[in-house]
Design goal:
heterotrimer, A alpha/beta, B alpha/beta, C alpha+beta, B: alpha/beta, Rossmann fold, 7-stranded mixed sheet, 3-stranded antiparallel sheet, 26% helix, 17% strand, globular, C: alpha+beta, 2 domains, 4-stranded antiparallel sheet, 4 strands
Chain lengths: 189, 288, 356
């Protein structure tokens, strides 16, 4: 049973450390952070993905889990207790980039009422190169990720143009983590 | 690391911290936009920094080194009280040294020493809505932010210029963040506004009573509103610090006697002490 | 001239707290005030603190009153700060005030009605003459008792409802809002508005309610019914599937009946304002009902012109914990901002050519 696998050894400090990693990642788009080092989540959940879920998701949030990650559903349910969500969920956790336009991007008055996508990838820091620019970056910065779709730049561009509405991405691979807030522009690297 | 008996690390319960953390991430993703959050009643009164305290409590970890300032000083009673609150509930190390701090909670000032990428500045905010004095209804100001309809503020600034020859706002001077959102920088003197522009450190803002959180990520554009023919300019007392001789820091004016005597000293006490320790002496000071 | 940097904030705070503790205790030769004495003999203060502190616990409210030296807003603040740290185990079922064990029940709109008019422990007809007998701690004779005639006492509104003369209950929300978890947004729904009023400052609600009687958004009220008494609190644990009784609370409820000539959307009928508060608090419950009705102006197609009809104004300013904090915070140092104002004014005076 996957629920036998533990969450953070210290739930309070584990969540705090992971949150700081996510906060740094969101503040400095593309900068890779490490988290979930002491986690052994059930397959196919990566430690970083599991850590982000334990840190941000609870019974006050809704979560949409991609079918490909269904084997981890019990563990997530047990440790996070999130309510089942749909395309308007607070969080979507998946291992392939969803159709961002189909998710909740907030409204003009409340652009924060939007879905955050927790996207598990093959690797960060290697793979396809992108150039990121925007708040959080002193200058345009190169970012490498493996597992984003070929048409990622077009899809991200459409999302970025909704600003201040839009979807924020938290990218996880192994124990690595990075983030792309809606405010960041991505181009070919 | 020790925590006060009966309370969680850094006082707030984990569910509350998660709620605040989710709001903080949204705030960072939409620089300058106010995120409503389920602000809790804190054991300190509204107006004493409940928003800043909640943000700090949600961010703070056992490895952090906390500095708390009020009016630029580490030794003002409210700064002492908040620093004690976290020393007691989170057992974290505290400091008055700006460079040694990883997290700085502030009321009304930005330290003189430039902050670094590995630091976070948390502002206590009494009134997060920059348009509040022009339009009291929050339903209405929310619509104005949605439409980026900030004409009302420009009209107010222009009226100041026609009446006084320049903008007459000296603190909480409105800023445009990331070219999109009008933001209240909290009641820091306008002197501090330029420090916010493309600051290397992450800036977080907490307004407890008004239940809003907002943020400015590192290296983000923060521009004080002005006009081409009336550019924004800062003011400070024209004197130099009586103790350390600094001639570009923000100064407090202290009434020295009942005959109109005044002494001007750095508002940033750590900055002043460091300068004096390095041998700088002002006209009223003695060598450290 | 020597300037000594202001140091010792920490010691100043410790000394202030010690002085406060001594002042709170007063003359040690006088007997210490017991929590039980406050709970039993200052019941109205305890009720007010529970209402504005949003926590039904007479024991803790009495402790808070003692700790706050009788400053009821400070006491309510102590309860609120305690309340926020409590885990939430369950939500109660809606209380049934028709099933209330009545201590007091008054209707101003009928001379008599089933169940009768029950004065209860009221100040209404006392002559406000200082009772010097209380100085010597006289024990009052026991009040007269009569057998309870049993059965629930039907609410006055239910008598009017049959003819359709009074508006029906609004649609029930599955889950009412909770402004202690979700920040207010506007337009605010009536459940959230009522929550704000129930936590709101009695003095503020009194002034707002009073203003509607003096013409600022008049709503022609009649006190349909005021009832005070004990109701059961029930919760329904998911694993049980039925409700269980977890205790009793004392509540005061006010149903205000308001004249209404009808609008384009609503036929002429009586409309309602509602007030409910912890403990014995009819001033609060009645004022709340007036303000609740005033805030329904827009919904009922009336002009919104008066302060009590302005939902944002009322709801944002009814909370005395928020208000007291923000007013009193003006005593914190603001000298940095004041300095920037000084420099601005000096500059403006210099530019205007004012000589020193």
């Amino acid at each position: 049973m996957s629920i036998d696998l533990p969450g953070f050894a210290d739930p309070v400090l584990g969540a705090q450390a992971c949150f700081r990693a996510v906060l740094t990642a969101m503040s400095r788009p593309g900068l890779i952070q490490r988290t979930g080092l002491d986690l052994t989540p059930p397959s196919p959940l990566a430690p970083a993905t599991a850590a982000v879920l334990l840190t941000l998701v609870d019974a006050e949030t809704t979560l949409l889990l991609a079918p490909s990650l269904a084997a981890s559903a019990e563990w997530i349910e047990f440790h996070c207790g999130a309510r089942q969500g749909d395309a308007a969920a607070d969080f979507v956790v998946t291992d392939s980039l969803p159709d961002l336009a189909a998710l909740e991007s907030g409204n003009d008055e409340c652009p924060e009422r939007s879905t955050t996508v927790i996207l598990q990838l093959a690797a960060l820091g290697q793979g396809t190169a992108y150039t990121l620019a925007g708040p959080g970056l002193a200058a345009p910065t190169r970012f490498l990720a493996e597992g984003l779709p070929a048409d990622f730049l077009a899809r991200w561009g459409a999302n970025h143009r909704l600003y201040p509405r839009g979807i924020d991405l938290i990218l996880c691979a192994g124990t690595d983590l990075a983030a792309l807030p809606r405010s960041v522009a991505a181009s070919e690297g | 690391m020790t925590s006060a008996a009966g309370y969680n690390f850094a006082y707030l319960d984990e569910q509350t911290k998660r709620m605040i953390r989710r709001a903080l991430l949204k705030a960072v993703a939409i620089p300058g936009h106010q995120i409503p959050f389920g602000s809790r009643e804190m054991p300190l009164p509204y107006g004493w920094g409940t928003g800043g305290i909640q943000v700090t409590a949600a961010v703070l970890g056992p490895d952090d080194v906390l500095k708390v300032i009020d009016q630029g000083a580490d030794d003002t009673t409210n700064a002492v009280s908040i620093r004690r609150f976290f020393a007691r509930t989170a057992g974290v190390a505290t400091t008055t040294d700006t460079a040694a701090a990883t997290l700085i909670q502030t009321r009304h000032r930005i330290p003189e020493k430039p902050l670094r990428e590995d630091q976070i500045l948390v502002y206590q905010v009494p009134q997060p809505e920059p348009l509040s004095r022009l339009e009291p209804s929050r339903a209405e100001t929310r619509r104005m932010h949605a439409l980026a309809e900030y004409g009302l503020m420009y009209v107010k600034l222009y009226e100041d210029i026609t009446r006084f020859g320049h903008v007459a706002i000296s603190y909480d001077y409105p800023v445009m963040v990331n070219g999109r959102h009008l933001m209240a920088p909290s009641p820091i003197p306008a002197f501090d506004n330029p420090k916010m522009h493309r600051m290397a450190a992450l800036q977080l803002f907490g307004a407890g009573r008004e239940k809003r959180i907002y943020a400015v990520p590192p290296y983000t554009s923060v521009v004080s509103l002005d006009f081409d023919d009336h550019p924004f300019r800062t003011t400070r007392a024209p004197q130099c610090c009586g103790l350390c001789g600094a001639d570009s820091s923000y100064l407090d004016e202290i009434v020295a006697d009942d005959k109109g005597g005044r002494l001007f000293v750095c508002s940033d006490t750590d900055f002043c002490e460091e300068r004096r320790a390095a041998g700088h002496v002002g006209p009223e000071g003695v060598a450290a | 001239m020597a300037y000594v940097a202001v140091k010792g904030g920490e010691r100043a705070i410790d000394n202030a707290h010690a002085w406060l503790a001594a002042t709170r205790r007063g003359d040690p030769a006088v007997t210490d005030l017991g929590i039980d004495q406050i709970r039993e003999q200052l019941g109205r203060a305890v009720d007010r603190v529970m209402a504005e502190g949003s926590l039904y616990d007479p024991e803790l409210a009495a402790l808070a009153i003692k700790q706050a030296q009788g400053d009821l807003i400070e006491a309510a603040f102590l309860l609120r700060a305690y309340r926020t740290t409590l885990p939430r185990f369950a939500h109660s079922e809606p209380v049934d005030t028709a099933a209330m064990a009545i201590h007091r029940r008054i209707s101003a709109v009928f001379k008599d009605l089933p169940g009768g008019q029950v004065l209860g422990p009221t100040y209404d007809y006392t002559h406000r003459l200082l009772d010097f007998g209380l100085e010597s701690g006289d024990v009052p004779p026991p009040p007269a008792e009569a057998p309870v005639d049993g059965g629930p006492m039907q609410r006055v509104n239910d008598f009017l409802k049959h003819e359709g003369l009074i508006e029906a209950d609004g649609p029930a929300h599955e889950t009412p809002g909770d402004l202690t978890r979700e920040p207010l947004s506007f337009p605010a729904s009536r459940d959230v508005r009522l929550q704000a009023l129930a936590r709101g400052d009695e003095g503020f609600l009194l002034a707002m309610g009073y203003s509607t009687q003096r013409g600022y958004g008049g709503s022609h009220p009649f006190a349909g019914e005021i009832r005070m008494g004990t109701v059961k609190i029930e919760i329904e644990p998911a694993e049980l599937g039925f409700a269980i009784d977890i205790g009793d609370v004392v509540l005061t409820e006010c149903q205000m009946v308001n004249q209404f000539k009808g609008s384009r959307t609503t036929p002429p009928q009586f409309t309602r304002g509602y007030g409910l508060t912890f403990g014995h608090g009819e001033r609060k419950a009645m004022a709340m009902a007036l303000v609740d009705r005033a805030m329904r102006a827009e919904e009922l197609g009336e002009d919104v012109t008066a302060p009590a009809q302005n939902v944002e104004f009322v709801v944002y300013h009814s909370d005395n914990i928020e208000g007291t904090g923000f007013v009193e915070h003006l005593q914190l140092p603001h000298y940095v901002d004041f300095q920037s104002e000084l420099e601005t004014i000096r500059r403006m005076r210099a530019e205007a050519g004012v000589s020193q």
